[in-house]
Write a structure and sequence with these properties.
- The chain has two domains: 26-134, Immunoglobulins (Immunoglobulin-like), CATH 2.60.40; 139-246, Sandwich (Immunoglobulin-like).
- 9% of the residues lie in helices and 47% in strands.
- The protein has one helix at 3-23; strands at residues 32-37, 43-44, 49-56, 66-71, 75-76, 82-86, 88-90, 93-101, 107-115, 125-134, 139-144, 148-149, 157-164, 176-182, 193-194, 198-200, 206-212, 220-229, 235-246.
- A hairpin with a 2-residue loop joins strand 7 (88-90) and strand 8.
- The termini are far apart.
Length: 247
């Protein structure tokens, strides 16, 4: 084979190899990488949050810096499970950041980030999964909208309990609380009427009931006590009370 033909074949092979390289897909990690800050503190308390961070290729053009975040649980800054953010420069890195508030119940959280490219929908997506544990109640604070109420079913007050975990944040919804009324000795039960005496905490970690003292005598103080129940329905040692005057 002549030197000229050898040269031609070399050029053809080189062109074919280069064309094959251009057809190779670009790895997602070279375009987008998703990470989470605060994942070690994840509980279903309805109040705490994590930070989702999408790191883009530092050479990404301005029109290719929009990131779509989607979560199956909790809600982003906009109150939804989907949000779009533009990546910005942070210490030399191109990052899109967003806060995700935790749900008020345990579960498996799936968080995805995708570069918003019209001609490559679903191409560059990264995903993180987290197990959200229950937020366990540690304390309850009881409040009343009035510290006095008329007897003989002529008066009614609203009683509210706010539950917290050991970090001072909310608890997972569905925590059971029982309300009872007692004399000042906190052992003699009275016969007042609650609109509901056993309740489940809501997404804001609260329980609320209404109370009327009924036919009990006036001119005295009583206690209304809220006690957190265990999963088996028995009373725990977690409780609080509010002192009410019967007039």
């Amino acid at each position: 084979m002549s030197t000229f033909k050898t040269f031609i074949w070399f050029i053809i092979i080189a062109v074919i190899q280069w064309s094959c390289k251009d057809d190779e897909p670009i790895a997602t990690i070279d375009i987008l990488e998703l990470s989470i800050e605060g994942a070690d503190k994840v509980v279903g308390d309805g109040t705490s949050s994590i930070t989702a961070i999408a790191k883009l290729n530092s050479k990404a053009a301005v029109e290719k810096r929009e990131v779509i975040f989607i979560s199956n649980l909790g809600q982003f800054d906009n109150g939804e499970k989907r949000i779009t953010k533009m990546a910005e420069r942070f210490k030399g890195e191109l990052l899109a950041k967003v806060q995700l508030k935790m749900p008020s119940s345990p579960g498996e959280l799936t968080l995805t980030a995708e570069v918003n490219l019209e001609d490559h929908i679903g191409f560059y997506v990264d995903e993180e999964m987290l197990t959200i544990d229950s937020s366990i109640v540690s304390s309850i604070d009881v409040m009343a909208d009035s510290f006095s109420v008329a007897n003989n079913f002529e008066g009614e007050i609203k009683i509210e309990g706010r539950l917290k975990n050991s970090s001072g944040n909310g608890v997972s919804s569905g925590t059971k609380v029982v309300f009872e009324d007692f004399d000042l000795d906190k052992t003699t039960a009275l016969e007042g009427v609650f609109s509901a005496d056993t309740l489940l905490s809501d997404g804001q970690s609260t329980v609320m009931t209404r109370y009327t003292p009924g036919l009990t005598s006036d001119g005295k103080y009583i206690f209304i006590i809220a006690t957190v129940l265990k999963t088996d329905g028995t009373k725990s040692g977690i409780q609080d009370s509010v002192k009410i005057f019967i007039k």
